[in-house]
Amino acid sequence: MKKYIGMDVHKATTVIAVINESGRIITEAVVETSPAAILDFISSQRGCLHVTFEECAQAAWLYDMLRPHVADLLVCDPRKIARASNKGDKSDARRLADLLRTNALTPVYHGEQTTTGLKELAQGYTCLVEDRTRVKNRLKALFRARGIACEGSGVYSLDERKQWLAKLDSPAVRARADRLCSELDCLEWLSTEAELDLRAEARKHPAGKILRSIPGIGFVRAAVIIGVAGTPHRFRTKRQFWSYCGLAVRTVASSEYRMLEGKVVRSSKRPLVRGLNRNYSRALKSVFKGAAKTVASGQWSSLFEAMIANGTPESLAYLTLARKIASVTLALWKRGERYSQKKMKIVHAA
Prior knowledge:
Blueprint: E1 2-9, E2 13-19, E3 25-32, H1 35-43, E4 48-54, H2 59-66, E5 72-76, H3 89-101, H4 116-144, H5 161-166, H6 171-202, H7 207-212, H8 219-229, H9 238-244, E6 249-252, E7 257-260, E8 263-266, E9 272-276, H10 282-296, H11 301-309, H12 314-335, H13 341-349
Parallel strand pairs: 1-4, 4-5
Antiparallel strand pairs: 1-2, 2-3, 6-9, 7-8
C-alpha cells in the first residue's frame, strides 16, 4: 500500500499528514523537530512511503536522515506551489501530501552523498568571501562619505592602515574604521583557512582535474563547481546549466500568432529580452563571471577583442565568454575528458 506523507517543518515542531492512494487522510500528527521524534513516526507507518517537505533551513539535514527509511523522498520548491486561500500548518501538510500523490511538485536537487563534504566546505568558503567583500565595501564607503578618494586596494593594506586612519577627522569614525579593519583581518585569515580545507577536500574528486584544465577554472573554482552542482548529469542541456548559473536570458512574448487570409500564422515579432534569470546559484554565477574576466585577458583574449571590435558591448562579451566556459565545463565533465585547445578552435571559428 502506498502512503503519501507531507511534512510542514518548523524550528520547534513538524506537522505531518499521511494520505492513501485515493487521497483520504489516514493520520495526522504534530511532532518535535528532532531526529528521534521524526524517525519514530516514520517507522510507525507501514507500506511504501513517499515523503515530501519544502526546501528550508532543515531540508539538507532531513533529506540525509530520511532517505534510508523511505521508498521515495522529494524536497519540493515552495516558490512553484500556488498559494492557498486558507493557510495553516495542518492544511499545508495535507496539501503537500496530495500534491505529491498527483505528481504536481517541482523537486529541488540535494546532491550526491560523495560530494556532501565538498559542498559544505564550498558554501563555507563562499560565505566568507562574501562577508569579506561586504566589509571592504563598508570600509570604502566610510571614506567616500567624507570626500576621501580611496581607489585601489591600499585602504585594506595593513602597512598603510595608520596613514588611512589619520585621514579621518573624528575619533569616533576612526574607531569605527579600525574595527572594520580588524574584522577584515579576521575574515582574511578565516578565508585562507577555508580555502586550504577546500583544496584538500577537492583533491579527493577526480572531476577536479578535468575542470581545472578548462581556461579560467582554477583549483578553488573547480571545487566550488563540484560542491554546488554535484553532478553534471542532472542537467540535460547546456541551457539548463546556464539557467542554474544565472546566465540564461529571459524573454517575454505576446500575440505570437495572427490571422492571414483565414489561416493562423506565427507572428514575425521578436520576443522582448528581459535580462538574465533571477533564480540561480550565486556561487556558480560568481565562478563563471570570474572565469570570463580571467580568459578575456588570457587564453581567449583574441575572441574577446574580436567581439568588442564587432560592436558587442563589453558586458555582453563577458556574458558570452561565461556561457561558453559553462558549456565547455558541462560537456567535458559529462564526458570525463580534459580541455583541448585544438578542439576549441572549431568553436571559436563558429
